[in-house]
Design goal:
With 530 residues, the protein is α/β, with parallel strands linked by helices. The chain has 20 helices and eight strands. The radius of gyration is 27 Å and the shape is elongated. The structure holds zinc ion (ZN).
């Protein structure tokens, strides 16, 4: 068998979400060593509905989500199983009440997905995620199903072959069906208590499939408010409830705010490069990218005090209060950036957070988050008015120059990118709030501490075919200037997410709520209109 492990440094764009296949359980509470006669291998029937072993099977609560495999990897595993190819041993640990999968979560989940015909989109996943299954996840699940049916067949069809006579046409299928009945996966047991099992988990995962930096960070700080909040938002309060031990009030509050934040950051769903102006401020959701974005976001907005606390600087949260506080602080900032609340600037994502080819830029987003957070912390409510005065010039400047700026940002040291960009935005607002003021791109670049010759960064096309990137670029070029503008400030309106209906002739002066007297404006612009 060739490794099923995904390559290091991958993006989770086309990964099958099998996280519902094996539930999670808190690992730490069970400290006893447990000895008994343990099963020596793992037949497939252990994964069948109602199998006693399946009922005992758990993932440690800190294990990463089972969503790292491509459809190809899922199918290859199933194929290897029915074709009797080598599959590496599962590593299990027996706790008093459960059997924990220390290594092999993806393997077992892929097999169970096949048996249940649920590749992240059917009954088990739907119950697990409630209704929050993204379009992308549904598409990938369907692609995995098709690929499996083509290469291996349906599990139920194969089961139906068991015991049937061999004919000339079904030899391969018949052989595979036999394997279903007789094959078992090899397994090893970890001896010792929970601490020993946890140590094994880290050892195994630092050898085989390396954990990403972000995963290691989340695991190490898994009882802290930032990790809990990030994991809650990424699934809009559904999926495994890392927060289920908190007080009922905190649980209810966490689930409420995370749904709002999910909507605020990740809706509507789009494919990138985007060919629509209806875009999420947080880019498209692929679980690992989303988690790392959320950790950064929550750290920037996390505290009301000055400065930024890193994920590790937060104490463990035992009641849920700290998690609720972190979520509330985040919402406080986010609803000023996007959404319909009266203080919302309703920043258009295409103008502020995406480049001219419809690609999301997290630094531009986090820089704006950081800027708004700072202004809120210093109670500088006047700044929002200054921003509104500067807005139309600022947006023109960004539309023309942000790709160049974004390209230069990545030449900065990683730890500086967000804050340098924030300072640049702050500077631009300060300049553009003065009527008639212009800023050259060279001035902006020198503000970043960079200098040099500006080169044309556009890709050179050498074939007559049109790439997705180019299509997205043409779309952005044509659509943005035609987007609706706010008649009060001249800035671009995000008409799907962040508009407010303004009475042109005010209510106090007898203005009516009929169509002729209404216009679409930014919620914030409406709130400060005299
Ligand atoms: Zn406006």
């Amino acid at each position: 068998m060739i490794g099923y492990a995904p390559k290091e440094g991958f993006r989770l764009a086309n990964r099958v979400d099998l996280d519902a296949m094996i539930p999670r359980e808190d690992f730490g509470v069970m400290d006893d060593t447990f000895n008994m006669d343990l099963m020596s291998d793992f037949p497939l029937r252990n994964l069948a509905k109602d199998a006693p072993v399946l009922k005992l099977l758990r993932k440690p609560d800190f294990q990463r989500e089972t969503n790292h495999w491509t459809p190809e990897q899922v199918v290859t595993l199933i194929e290897s199983f029915v074709d009797s190819e080598v599959i590496p041993s599962l590593i299990l640990w027996k706790a008093p009440s459960f059997i924990f999968v220390i290594d092999g979560g993806h393997r077992l989940s892929a097999l169970r997905a096949w048996m249940e015909d649920d590749y992240g989109d059917k009954h088990i996943s739907r119950a697990f995620y409630k209704t929050e299954i993204s379009e992308k996840q549904l598409k990938i699940a369907e692609a995995t199903r098709k690929l499996t049916e083509k290469r291996v067949g349906r599990y139920t069809d194969l089961v139906a072959q068991v015991g049937l006579p061999v004919t000339g046409t079904n030899t391969k299928m018949h052989k595979r069906a036999q394997v279903l009945a007789t094959r078992a996966l090899p397994l090893q047991w970890i001896q010792g208590n929970a601490a020993a099992a946890e140590t094994s988990f880290y050892k195994i995962n630092s050898q085989g499939t390396p954990l990403d930096d972000i995963e290691t960070m989340l695991i190490k700080n898994r009882r802290g408010p930032i990790a809990i909040a990030a994991r809650a938002i990424v699934r809009a309060g559904s999926g495994h409830k890392y927060w289920s031990g908190f007080t009922p009030e905190c649980v209810a509050e966490i689930e409420k705010i995370t749904v709002q934040l999910y909507e605020n950051v990740f809706k509507p769903e789009v494919d990138e490069p985007a060919k629509t102006l209806e875009l999420p401020v947080g880019g498209s959701v692929s679980p690992l990218d989303a988690l790392s974005l959320l950790v950064e976001l929550l750290c920037i907005t996390g505290t009301r005090q000055q400065g930024v606390k890193s994920i590790a600087q937060y104490a463990e949260d035992s009641t849920g209060k700290a998690t609720v506080a972190v979520l509330r602080n985040c919402y406080e900032v986010l609803h000023r950036i996007s959404g319909k609340d009266s203080g919302s600037l309703g920043l258009h994502p295409a103008v502020y957070f995406y480049n001219e080819r419809g690609k999301y830029n997290r630094f531009l987003f986090l820089a704006m988050v950081s800027l708004v957070t700072e202004k809120l912390k210093s109670n500088n409510s006047g700044w929002f008015k200054e921003f509104t005065s500067a807005r139309s010039s600022l947006e023109q400047f960004l539309i023309t120059n942000k790709s160049l700026i974004a390209m230069l940002i990545v030449t900065l040291w990683k730890g500086q990118r967000i804050y340098k960009t924030r300072d640049l935005l702050d500077y631009l607002v300060n300049e553009f709030k003065i009527p008639g003021k212009t800023v050259s791109v060279e001035e902006a670049i020198s503000f970043l501490g960079l200098s040099g010759r500006i080169v044309d960064v556009r890709n050179v096309t050498t074939t007559p075919s049109i790439s997705d990137d180019t299509k997205a670029a043409v779309f952005m070029r044509e659509a943005l200037p035609k987007a609706m503008h706010c008649p009060l400030c001249g800035g671009i309106l995000d008409q799907t997410k962040s508009v407010s209906y303004d009475h042109i002739k005010g209510i106090q002066s007898g203005g009516l709520g009929d169509a002729d007297n209404l216009q679409l404006v930014h919620p914030f612009c409406n709130s400060i209109k005299n």
